[in-house]
Amino acid sequence: MSRFTAPETGPKRFLSLSTHARLLLLVLVAILPAPAVMLHTATEQRHLTTEAVKADALRLARVARDGHEQVIEAGRQLLTTLARLPEVRTGAPAECGRLLARLLSDQPTYANLGIAALDGTIACSAHPLAARMEVSSRSWFRRAQHAQTFAVGDYETDITGKRAFVLAHPIVGPIGAPPAIAFAAVDLTRFNRLAAVAGLPPGSTVTVIDRQGRVLSRFPDHVRSVGHRLPETRIIRTIQSRHGEGAVEAVGHDGRRRLYAFAPLRGGSGDGAAYVHVGIPTEVAFAESDALFRRNLVLLGCAGLLALVAVWMSGDLLIRRPTRLLLDATRRLAAGELATRTGLTGGGEIGELGRSIDLMAQSLERRDAELRALADEQVRLYEEAEIRSRESKVLADLVRDINTSLDLDTVLERVTEGARELCKSDLARIALRDPDTGTMRVRCWVGALAEAWRGGGVATGEGLGGRVMRTGQPWRTADCHADPGTAREGAEVLLDEGVVAAMAVPIRGPERIEGVLFVANQAARPFSDRNEDILVQLADHAAIAIRNAQVFRQEQAVRQQAESSELRYRSLYDGVPVGLYRSTPDGRLLDANPALWQMLGYPDRESLLAADAVEFHEHPEDRRAWQARIEREGQVRDVEVRIQRRDGQLMWMRNSARAVREASGRTLYYEGVYQDVTERKRAEEMVWRYTERLRVQLQIDRAILAARSPAEVAQAALRRLRQLATSVRASLTLFDLEANQATQLAVDLASTTALGVGTYLPLEMAGDTAELRRGRIHVVEDIRPLLHLRRAQDLHAEGVRSYMVVPLVASGELIGFLDVGSDRTGPFAPDQIELAREVADHLAVALQQARLQEQIQRHAAELEQRVAERTRALEETNLAMESFAYSVSHDLRAPLRAMHGFADALLEDHAARLDAEGQEYARRIIAAARRLDTLIQDLLAYSRLSHGAVQIGPVDLESALGAAIAQLEAGPLEDRGELVVERPLPAALAHRSTLAQVLVNLLSNAFKFARPGARPEVRVRAEGRGARVRLWVEDRGIGIAREHHDRIFGVFERLHGVETYPGTGIGLAIVRKGVERMGGTVGVLSEVGAGSQFWIELAGVETT
Amino acid sequence: VSEATATILLVEDDPNDVLLVQRAFRRAQVANPIQVVGDGEAAIEYMAGHGPYANREDHPLPALVLLDLKLPRRSGFEVLDWLRRQPRLRRLPVVVLTSSALATDIRRAYELGASSYLVKPLEFEALQDMLGAVGAYWLGLNQRADLADD
After folding, report:
1. pLDDT digits (tens, 9 = 90+) for A765-787
2. Hey, are the CB atoms on A900 and B123 less than 8 Å from each other?
């Protein structure tokens, strides 16, 4: 996880100026370089202008120089030409003077033209004034005379008063004629004109100076300064130092600053004895650039002003409104309205910002949706957990219920109802193996049950229950009609019942499948794996309970299940709090929402931000692992971590976070979400522990179920208990109430023991027996105080340091106790105690059951023995009866025969010696013997019917009647009367000879009890009564009073004297006994004087 | 064609029955000599020719044995069983004459090799008819096997 880090410094202190002021400032800063640039430009302009002016001045200077040189050249040509003129050569002064004057008027360049003689006198001159001048000292004269070639003289003031310089050329006269010097004075005022023509800017000067700095010519103030030395010493110095062209900026004599350009004029010596310099005033030269600069400044000022106004005006539109939008949006987002968007679409930073915020909001919204989905998922999870816990609870309740009841019907009802409740099914049924027939029979059901299931059994095979019985595996189908595995036996019945989805699980007995638990839905609601799991669990528990109930049908055992966990799951998700945060890679919290600091138990945001985020983790390396992962993958999703609250309490949090990185990939911070899942985790753990305990119980139950003897039961349970409770020793001690002692039934421990099975554990180590009887657990947290007892020493030697004694109470009776030893002193964990108690309770019931089972087996064995004895006695009685009958038939009749035989012999052989009375006596002896013989025969017949075997089969009534009639005809009855048989007679299930015997008796009675004097009429007919056949024997005899109807079927019951109607009184008893032995009934309809209608009813034979 | 000298051995313990049987034979005109023994053991000794019956002149081998079942010392069944295991005597016809009409007795008698089974009737007339028929059949019509050694 990340850390909750606070910034090292507080939030940046922004300028407290308003946006407007800041904008204006920005505009000002933005236009600040413009004046500088303008200044720079102006300077540059100035420089350029300076250069340009300099160039201009220089150009002017050159033009002046060139003009000067042209003048000199023109002068040289003029003077050369003059020197050749004859007028000049000959030297006629007047003539020469005229010529020169004429020339001068044509040449305004010149101030004067003349010829000087070698002595320095003027031979002729255009200006007459010059004729008396001495020129031999003049430079031009000396140079021309000396060099005898063209020469340029110094600048001087001409005789006419004009500033000029003189050109001279020697004249070679005709041979013999003295040489002379022609000269021409060039007027320097020409330069002024030149300057005027050149269009110099106002204030400009064009000055010609000589080397000494004397002004030779000056434009425009020619008169004032000519002849004076110039004060412009800098120019002079520059000129003097350079000997050539140049330019310099200097202050003129009139105080104005100018740019000066100069160029040497070729003087008489040609070495630039004079210079022309042109000065242009700087203010004039810079006037234009300065004006431009000023104008630009004004424009800039205007533009700046406009910009400020525009910024002021547009700031509101372009910045403040979007900013407000952004602010509003962020505030609303912060308030949780995650659907908020800025709606800013334009370009620029604000647009970008708006989009970023929108993206962020979108991301938040998505995250929020994910969180909501997560929450939903959690709700679902909790609901599921709740359903499971509810199911487990229902199952636990159910198991407790069925375990406490030993009444099979109650157990079956609860199991069936429970199955329906747990699986939410429409129907639920339970079929059990019938112990007599071995077939499965539906024993209990909830919901509809087709008639077909009630009578018939469920056979092992391909049908619903049959498959489960055959395979022993649970089976289910979403649609039993579409499922090819089901559409066999019983499918039509299921179809009639409207069953669609069905599931069946086996009820497993210790050796075989004892039954099938079946649930079904009449709609297309299939059963789930969970349904199957829970139904299998239920069936397993039911198997135990059913077996218990079956075995201990008459016993009322109370099963105390230590199942009392009251897990109350409140709705675990009432608004899962979501903590949001940002943290730095080094573990500082940058920000956290209220939910987070509240979750972590901090009073406010600041105190949370001040804390070290790394320490929130239970283990600091968790954070490192988390960080490594987020750096590697860019995000973590739904990791569950243990977080320590401010109060030190640990809580489970679900964390999702992502790394926010800059373009270079460096992580700026992490932003993430925390969700408190402690309750869910706790619930999960509880559910897990709870189901684990149930599982353990079930395993113990199974072990108990699989075990045979109480010792095996105990051993199986103890092994599991000791492993689960991580104890060193577990043993079970049972009280033998008759012997008034307690012995260990089973021991389970890692090492061998001196306290093995069968040894005696002193009761004083088990605490107060009365307390144990009340179900209290006796815990000895330290065995050492008991070490004076030898058994305690043994336990100590086995590593036991503390132990608990858990009572085994069954049906309110303390039957023993379970002791669990630990290798540590101190109290036992609640889990261990709970588990031990559960196991003890299960064991108590199981052992009690095992005991009772043994008892019942003993009873059964006794019963069996008694039955065998009785059977033997009965067989003996039967044998005695047989021998009695034998005696009767054999021995009793022998004297009778003798009486009869000898009475007969008397009558035959000695009739002559007997009188009539003697003969009558002999005849009475014979009659009495005959009657006694009949009685004996009837009694024998009755006895045989009562004891002999009667095998039933289809007998044709016709043939039986025939046999009876034959016997009657063979008998001694005198008056037969008339017999009418309504044919045909059907067949019936009977024993032929018995039936014949019955009919003989009925027929003989019918003939016998005729009305005196009337000829007997006997009618025999048969009628079908459903599946049975009734045979009537009807007479028209004397009839029987109603009150005698029941009596007449008894043995020796007679209604008439032997004299009237002879008989033994056994005939009808034989009839009833015989018919009853054949599974039939007898009856009579009769009135005195109205005849009798006897009937016998037997099972008919279905004709196929 | 009854052989008048063929002896009938009557095994009967009841003297009344002995008298009645002798009278019935007489009245039925069966004149053959009748030797009478009163118990099963005597019957076996007679037929074996032992003890008091060693003299065959006085006690000749019978041509027919009338055997009661309920006898002192050894029962009629025992006599029958013994007789049927003798090499030559086994060929002797034995007619059971008894008062028992029990099916078990009848079955057992035939299983042990009785030639016929008759129940003593109550009426003397019936007894006379019965024994007349026995004489006519077993001593007249019936072809007897010789009892001599092979």
Report:
1. 777 777 877 878 888 888 888 88
2. yes
d(CA A812, CA A774): 8
The alpha-carbon gap from A407 to the nearest alpha carbon of chain B, in Å, equals 51
Q: Do B16 and A894 touch (CB under 8 A)?
A: yes
Rounded to 5 degrees, φ, ψ at B113 are 100, 20
Q: Which CA distances in Å does A1043 have to A177, A681, A1053, A1087?
A: 228, 87, 13, 10
Whether residue A889 lies within 8 A of chain B, CB to CB, comes out as: yes
Contact A223, A217 (CB under 8 A): no
What HEC string does B12-36 produce? CCCHHHHHHHHHHHHHCCCCCCEEE
- Judged against a pLDDT cut of 60, whether residue A268 lies above it is answered with no
Pairing of strands A475-477, A457-458: unpaired
Which pTM does this prediction carry? 0.35
Q: What is the ipTM of this complex?
A: 0.76
Q: Do B16 and A901 touch (CB under 8 A)?
A: yes
DSSP A1079: T
Long-range contacts of the stretch A607-610 (C-beta < 8 A, 24+): A608/A4, A609/A4, A609/A5, A609/A6, A610/A6
**Which residue of B12, B124, B129, B130 to mutate against A (max A Cβ within 10 Å)?**
B124
User: Would you call A482 exposed, middle or buried from its count of C-beta atoms within 10 A (0-12, 13-18, 19+)?
Assistant: exposed
pLDDT > 60? residue A553? no
Alpha helices by DSSP H, A9-32: 19-31
Chain A residues whose CB is inside 8 A of the B70 CB are 890-891
Burial label, A450 (beta-carbon count in 10 A; 0-12, 13-18, 19+): middle
Instruction: Give the DSSP H or E segment for A923.
Output: helix A916-947
- Establish if A8 touches chain B: CB-CB under 8 angstroms: no
Please give the Cα distance from A186 to A127 (Å, whole number): 14
Contact B122 A930 (CB under 8 A): yes
Average pLDDT over residues A747-763: 59
The residue in chain B having the minimum alpha-carbon distance to the alpha carbon of residue A896 is B122
What would the mean pLDDT of A345-374 be, rounded to a whole number?
75
pLDDT digits (tens, 9 = 90+) for A81-133: 877 777 776 666 777 778 888 888 887 777 788 888 777 777 777 777 655 67
- Specify the DSSP element, H or E, that contains A207: strand A205-210
**Alpha carbons A68 and A189: distance in angstroms, whole number:** 11
Smallest CA–CA separation between B100 and chain A, in Å? Answer: 5
Distance (Å) from the alpha carbon of A879 to chain B's nearest alpha carbon: 13
pLDDT of A227 over the 90 cut: no
Residue A972, chain B, CB below 8 Å: the answer is: no
Q: Is B59 touching A (CB cutoff 8 A)?
A: no
Is the peptide bond between A174 and the residue preceding it cis, with omega within 30 degrees of 0? no
Tell me chain A's radius of gyration from C-alpha atoms. Answer: 76
Question: Do A70 and A76 form a contact (C-beta atoms < 8 A)?
Answer: no
How many other C-beta atoms lie within 10 A of the C-beta of residue A275?
29
Q: Cα(A120)–Cα(A178) distance, rounded to whole angstroms?
A: 12
B102 to chain A, any CB pair closer than 8 A? The answer is yes
Q: Token pair for residue A560?
A: 């105390």
Q: Which of B105, B122, B127 sits opposite A896 (nearest CB)?
A: B122
pLDDT at B95 (0 to 100): 95
Residue A734: beta bridge partners? Answer: A743, A816
Sign of the CA dihedral running A390, A392, A394, A397: negative
A929 closest CB neighbour out of B14, B23, B122: B122
Judge whether A522 is closer than 8 Å to chain B, CB to CB. no
CB A643 within 8 A of CB A581: no
Cβ atoms of A801 and A822 within 8 Å: the answer is yes
